[in-house]
Specification:
Layout lengths: L3 E2 L5 E2 L16 E10 L6 E11 L12 E6 L16
Antiparallel strand pairs: 1-2, 3-4, 4-5
C-alpha cells in the first residue's frame, strides 16, 4: 500500500476497503455497551465495540510514544471511534 507524503511532512494514508483488510486483523475483543449509541460515521445504532491491540513495529528514531495501545472500531462500518475506557486497560 502506497503512502502519500504531503508538503507539511505528514503522511496521508489512502482509504482501505474492508475486503482488503487481512483476515487476521479482523479479530479483536468485543465489548458490550450498557446502552445503545450511534456511530458518528455510519449513524447506525451499536451495542458493542471492537477493541484491537496496536503494537509498534517500526520506528527510525527514539520515540517517546508508547510501544503498544488499543484502537476502538464500530462493528458495522469498521471506522475508528473516539472513546475513553477506564478499569479495563
Amino acid at each position: 500500500m502506497a503512502v502519500n507524503k504531503t508538503d507539511d511532512d505528514a503522511y496521508e494514508l489512502p482509504d482501505v476497503k474492508t475486503e482488503e483488510i487481512p483476515e487476521e486483523w479482523q479479530g479483536g475483543a468485543v465489548y458490550t455497551l450498557e446502552l445503545p449509541v450511534r456511530c458518528p460515521h455510519c449513524r447506525d445504532p451499536i451495542r458493542t465495540i471492537r477493541v484491537l491491540r496496536l503494537t509498534r513495529t517500526q520506528v527510525s528514531f527514539t520515540s517517546t510514544l508508547p510501544r503498544n495501545g488499543r484502537a476502538f472500531v464500530c462493528p458495522q462500518c469498521e471506522k475508528l471511534l473516539s472513546v475513553e475506557l477506564s478499569g479495563i486497560l
